Amino acid sequence: MDPNVLAPWRDLAIVWLGLLTILFVAVPGVVFYFGVRGIRAAKRWLRPKLLLAQVWAKRIQNGAARASARVAALPIALSSAGARMSATARRVLAFK
What single string gives the DSSP state of each residue in 43-94? Predict the structure, then answer.
């Protein structure tokens, strides 16, 4: 068989395989490109909202810490005052 007879079909097959390769590479590439753009846009839209939520959570945490410190301060102050008076009374009674 003469190789020149199959040469056009060989060239057509090479072109066809090249087009299929471009298609199989281009479709995931385009999907990936637009996916990355969408994720970046979502992060750009979401970041200020998450920052605001973080600020409010920190404000609530600080307020709760201040309130719990104030609530706990009274029993601690009473207990320490009682301990001071008890120690003072023992020292006065033990002094002779």
Answer: HHHHHHHHHHHHHHHHHHHHHHHHHHHHHHHHHHHHHHHHHHHHHHHHHHHH
